[in-house]
Amino acid sequence: MALxxxxxxxxxxxxxxxxxxxxxxxxxxxxxxxxxxxAGGAIYVxxxxxxxxxxxxxDTGLSxxxxxxxxxxxxxxxxxxxxxATVLDRFQLGxxxxxxxxxxxxxLQGLSEASGRSQRGxxxxxxxxxxxxxxxxxxxxxLLLDPTRYRYAGxxxxxxxxxxxxxPLVHAQLKAPGRRAIPARLxxxxxxxxxxxxxxxxxxxxxxxxxxxxxxxAPIGTGLAGDLxxxxxxxxxxxxxxxKVRSPTTGLGGELKGFLGRTDIDGVIGISVFQDARLxxxxxxxxxxxxxxxxxxxxxxxxxxxxxxxARGPRLEQVVVDYVVPRSPAADAGVQVGDExxxxxxxxxxxxxxxxxxxxxxxxxxRRRLVLLRDSDTVRVSLQLRKxx
Length: 389
Prior knowledge:
Blueprint: H1 7-10, H2 13-19, E1 30-35, E2 37-39, E3 42-49, E4 52-58, E5 66-68, H3 69-74, E6 85-88, E7 91-93, E8 96-98, E9 101-106, H4 109-115, E10 121-123, H5 125-128, E11 132-136, E12 141-145, E13 157-164, E14 167-175, E15 182-189, E16 197-199, H6 201-206, E17 216-223, E18 226-234, E19 237-240, E20 243-246, E21 249-253, E22 267-270, E23 277-282, E24 287-292, E25 307-312, E26 318-324, H7 329-332, E27 340-344, E28 347-348, H8 354-360, E29 367-374, E30 377-384
Parallel strand pairs: 4-10, 5-9, 15-22, 16-21
Antiparallel strand pairs: 1-12, 2-3, 3-4, 3-7, 5-10, 6-9, 7-8, 11-12, 11-23, 13-14, 13-24, 14-15, 14-19, 16-22, 17-18, 18-21, 19-20, 23-24, 25-26, 26-27, 27-28, 27-29, 29-30
């Protein structure tokens, strides 16, 4: 995902590009139709890699499609032990079958723990840019369309973008309380889940956004290079052309390293903004089109408990507290970093997944009874959930 992209990934560009085949065959408008799964705010589509099936994160903000190095070893891909990239004999997305595809090899354990889902790989910009991409949350499917034949005839909102290092860079307006609208260059990043926006530290400092209140000091995302640190606030409004999103949850960069230190873009806009919508990424005409079934103001909300949870264990079956927001319901109840969550309201956490657990802790006003394991002791607490922003 773009948030953790490092300079070593850029070094793979020439190699991967040289191995990439022509991805759009002669034929009809529809190139491939893929079912969509949503988990932890991110979206996934099925693929076949050298005969092995895998769900890949759909990531418009990542330059190069890649696979998890550990998984690549299990399916015996050449170079998986030491190389930074490899070539796939066969790569299939629905009806589309490709051969000789070059992919990067990433360490995805951190993303697996943060998402609660074993990450086999990421479907990136190098593949997606060859198509018009139609992501429909309501129909739960993704279409890959031939861009030369594509014509849009709906009533969605069209927002132009420019290509920054060939990635889609949307020009937006950000409104903070009591301030004039601020222009921002936001990378469209369907691999950035959770918050609506994450802004780089130089942009935050330039526009003095670090003093906005209320604010939560907490990790603001997880990428290939690890956690991103800063504060979380709500802006008054995000404007994309004629589209307005009210009160978007926003991570403000608090460190000058990795993605957060970049000056060529101002931040990313995540897939959570477009939930319950249809998002079309028309690379050929450099525009996105958004069709929404309701008034803008989508629910990329923040947790109401004050718990940042991750998954651990061989099968990611253990849900562990990774961070506790100060003065939150969880902090007031005495929950500690390292506690393992065993049950919520009598329902075993092991019988569900991390995404469902997080959703359970976002019901404003609900009281949740938690059973936790701390060292060898069982701890019981009660949380009154409330908005933290």
